[in-house]
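Saturday, quiet lab. Running sequence design on the structure tokens for the scaffold JK sent over.
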């Protein structure tokens, strides 16, 4: 005879009924979807879970590296393990193969190295790279972390931030000088980021490494939030920033293809 308890038991409809085994995953998912750091209070309201439960989950997620505290010390955003989880998911064999095909076509058409980078905690991290065929090239392998304030990919990321978060980050970066061209004045950097937002691309005119130029564009999600950046690098002996800017339309077209790939 059927068990009426199984037949009549309602499906879970409210977030306060989240099974214990799923709560940590749902909390991490909520932070990922928000796109901005969330406070324990905001998470408690969004998930319908008691504040003590939220604090226990956050403590676990932070200790294990899936979440990290924002500069305000109260809110939480993606941690190193969560970012690597996302990048590894995107790097599944089928998606990565298609992604590399797009990047190889770009590198072949432009004749320069192209890179895919994602924001990390202290800088941009290279996720993929396709080298140019030229013997003279800049060596920045996958996994390299580069500064935010003096690289094309980093400045593209900074230009995507909300004003309040940007100000906090600029205040904590230190703006270390790497070359004579590095922007170390906060206002000069703000002006550069305003220009980046207006024209849709960022540049690196020997600001990170002497003799290296770069241009970058954003790859965005369905909510227009920056996911990663796509950039071109070249030695000055072969191309100035103005020379790379001439490839902006080609670079942007490749970025749009990568956006579509990430959304499929």
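Result came back. Writing it out in full:
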């Amino acid at each position: 005879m059927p068990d009426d308890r199984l037949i009549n038991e309602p499906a879970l409809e409210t977030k306060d009924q989240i099974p214990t085994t799923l709560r940590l995953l749902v909390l991490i998912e909520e932070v990922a979807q928000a796109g901005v750091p969330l406070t324990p209070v905001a998470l408690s309201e969004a998930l319908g879970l008691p504040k003590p439960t939220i604090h226990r989950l956050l403590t676990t997620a932070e200790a294990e590296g899936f979440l990290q505290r924002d500069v305000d010390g109260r809110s939480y955003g993606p941690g190193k393990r969560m970012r690597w989880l996302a990048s590894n998911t995107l790097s599944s064999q089928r998606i990565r193969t298609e992604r590399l095909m797009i990047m190889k076509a770009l590198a072949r058409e432009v004749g320069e190295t192209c890179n895919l980078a994602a924001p990390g905690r202290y800088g941009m991290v290279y996720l993929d790279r396709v080298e140019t065929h030229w013997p003279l090239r800049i060596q920045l392998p996958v996994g390299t972390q580069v500064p935010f304030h003096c690289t094309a990919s980093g400045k593209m990321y900074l230009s995507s931030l909300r004003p309040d978060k940007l100000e906090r980050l600029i205040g904590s970066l230190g703006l270390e000088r790497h070359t004579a061209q590095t922007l170390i004045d906060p206002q000069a950097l703000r002006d550069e980021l305003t220009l980046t937002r207006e024209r849709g691309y960022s540049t690196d005119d020997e600001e990170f490494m002497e003799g290296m130029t770069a241009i970058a564009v954003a790859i965005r999600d369905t909510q227009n939030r920056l996911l990663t950046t796509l950039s071109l690098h070249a030695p000055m002996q072969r191309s100035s920033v103005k020379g790379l800017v001439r490839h902006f339309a080609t670079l942007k077209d490749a970025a749009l293809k990568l956006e579509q790939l990430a959304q499929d």
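Notes for JK: Confidence is low (pLDDT under 50) at residues 1-15. The longest strand covers residues 226-235. Ask whether to fix the surface positions before the next round.
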